[in-house]
Amino acid sequence: MSQEPVPESLPEHRAPRPRPPGGPPPPPDTPYSPGGVGSHGPDPSADDTRTDTDTHTVTKTETDTGAGAPGGRHGNAAVRTRPGPRSKRAMQGAGRRRRARLARLDLKVSPYAYVAPFFILFAIFGLYPFLYTIWISLTNESPINPETDFVGVDNYTRLFGDDRFWAAVVNTFGMFVLATVPQLLMALVLASWLNRRLRGLTFFRMSIAMPIVTSTAVVALVFGMFFARDYGLINGILGNFGVDPINWRASQWTSWLAISAMVDWRWTGYNALIYLAAMQAIPRDIYEAAEIDGASRVRQFWRITIPLLTPTIIFTVIISTIGGLQLFTEPLMFTSGSGALSGGTTGQYQTITMYLVQTMRTFNQWGYAGAISLVLFLMIVLVSAINFLLVRRLGSDR
Amino acid sequence: MTVTMSTRPSQTSRRRRPKGGHEAGATVRRASPLTIGGLIIAAALSIAPLYWMLVVASRTSNSAYQWPPALLPGGNLGENIQRVLDNPDAAIFRGIVNSFIVSGTITVSTVFFGALAGFAFAKLRFRGKNALLLAVLVTMMVPIQLSIVPLYQMMGEFGWLNDIRAVIAPFLISGFGIFLMRQYSIQAIPDELIEAARIDGCSVWGTFRHVAVPALRPAAGVLGLLTFMQQWNEFFWPFIVLADPGNPTVQISLRTLNSAYHQDLSQIFAGMVIATVPLLLIFVFFFRQIISGIMEGATKG
């Protein structure tokens, strides 16, 4: 959005018309900058002449505080508020012009300087590695390979026939669904509970938010102990009901369940708070109107709360998708000891990211790892998009 | 990305609510006993694993293997912490120092550059602003997993492998930080103040320094807290570049403890207490800011 220079500012500078004190304020909703006219104004030479005329006019129109012409007259403004002896001012003419030019440069360059650090850093640690990943995925680069050859799409064709990769995909999606669906449903329920009038609200909020400060490594270790085969808390409780000890790490389903429990514990409260924020933003009178119309509370929840929450639900689903498809720490820490990257004896809980790291660090196949990471990225984008459409559909159906 | 401060009005009503009794604020439904029961269960489930961590960390290793399990903390916490600090493999003291350096540096940098760029995006006018802002938002979607291979190579070339600089550098500025500060700048910095500063002869930097910085302080605090927490808990990237266990972050120390051949549970759990306590303290002291940061960050997204 390039701002047009304000057309009437130029004549105004040349021949300032008398204006009532406290003239029309600038439109409040258009954020103008200190850059204002200066950064997009006419060419500098025109500005210079204006500076000269202004020094004369300013003294005449003391009431004109520049409210009508936001921006642009930086140097003059400074002079106006610090009126010195007139002779001194004349002597300072040249310096003032230089200052004015510097001020305009300041206005023009500063915004770019302020946003530049981000883009420089991103270019180094984001964009360049991304582009290089595309290149590397077309080679057989390896730290133990003295020379690197271009291999075309070989890595990708290999990937599509790689059973271990697809097993990791199944594991990742399995745990993602197992973790995300109950988590978001529980979060919705929790949020609607927290959105009531009750004693100890702060306590409840605080305790439900507490898992957020716990690191995934800690979560994984504590839950790893809960789900231990011998002396584990879960097996102990189940044992009271006559269930034989389960070796949670041994099979696919049980390990998925255990790992999903870790994810759920850590993130349910976070999502509940987000839903709560959105629920509190819904105007109360909508519910009052529904109540008058005789809608039950369940009906109100499905017909009012859920549709109005749809953007927020989309947000949480996408955040969960991005996080869930990159699941790494929990399954890694579920195995103690070395070889944890394999995700269990037969890879029953190895995720895509674990396989990626294993390919890179253990197998030293950097080119192939590049291909894996790009496919993972595409999957994240694709699944996020599908979920977005899905949730929007659900929201509008009601 | 529709951006509103939609949570504002509701916050006032929320503040009124817990006082209870007054029918004026009674549009919000009172919680039924069933709801309260559910909330108590949820709260208990949320706290239980952390409490359990404390219990195991404060007892002898053997007591972790008894049934029924011990439910009260024992008296060995100090001793267990001493043992884990003395454990040469885990280097947990080094890990804590490193984690403080890493999280602290990234927090300061994220807040400073976030405020600077957020202010520019919200209040300054420059060509290509919207396109650049969009670019910032798009970069938020790019996970680090995507490019670990080149990043790892790059850190190798910089000579930063097993060096905490490798953990700091890629995270110094976040798109999320810029976006959060931009949203806050829009409503917290009145244009009149910027204009007044300019009339007083302030440079753009001076305007930022004297007008924006004081106004942005609350948001900077929230962003700082969230960033510190996130970086303190970061696992994936340190795991990749700090492979040598001698120079870990605290999370990597925990991983080393856990992968030892002989597992000493009370020692591991004492290490976890050490790793969690700084954040728990921050959480208890700044609970309100953290919660509002999470809640507002989401509704603005």
Automatic annotation (TrEMBL), chain A:
Membrane topology of the entry: Multi-pass membrane protein
Pfam families found in the cross-reference section:
BPD_transp_1
Task: Give the GO terms filed under biological process for this record.
Answer: transmembrane transport
Is Oxidoreductase one of the keywords? no
Keywords from the UniProt entry: Cell membrane, Membrane, Transmembrane, Transmembrane helix, Transport
Q: Which residues form the ABC transmembrane type-1 domain?
A: 169-387
Residues covered by region (Disordered): 1-97
User: What would be one Gene Ontology cellular-component term for the protein?
Assistant: plasma membrane
Q: Where is the composition biased (Pro residues)?
A: 18-31
Q: Where does the record place Basic residues bias?
A: 83-97
**Composition bias, Basic and acidic residues:** 47-63
- Cited InterPro entries: ABC_transporter_permease (IPR051393), MetI-like (IPR000515), MetI-like_sf (IPR035906)
TM stretches of this protein? 112-135, 165-191, 203-228, 265-283, 304-328, 366-390
Cell location: Cell membrane
The record's listing under PANTHER family reads: ABC TRANSPORTER PERMEASE PROTEIN, INNER MEMBRANE ABC TRANSPORTER PERMEASE PROTEIN YCJO
Q: Which family does it belong to?
A: Belongs to the binding-protein-dependent transport system permease family.
- Name of this protein: Sugar ABC transporter permease
Provide the species name.
Phytoactinopolyspora halotolerans
From TrEMBL, chain B:
**Biological processes per GO annotation:** transmembrane transport
CDD domains xref list: TM_PBP2
Which segments cross the bilayer?
34-54, 96-119, 131-152, 164-181, 268-291
User: The organism sits in which domain of life?
Assistant: Bacteria
GO CC terms of this entry: plasma membrane
Q: Where is this region: Disordered?
A: 1-27
Q: What is the name of the protein in this document?
A: Carbohydrate ABC transporter permease
Quote the PROSITE patterns the UniProt record gives.
ABC_TM1
**Entry's localization field:** Cell membrane
Domain (ABC transmembrane type-1) spans 96-286
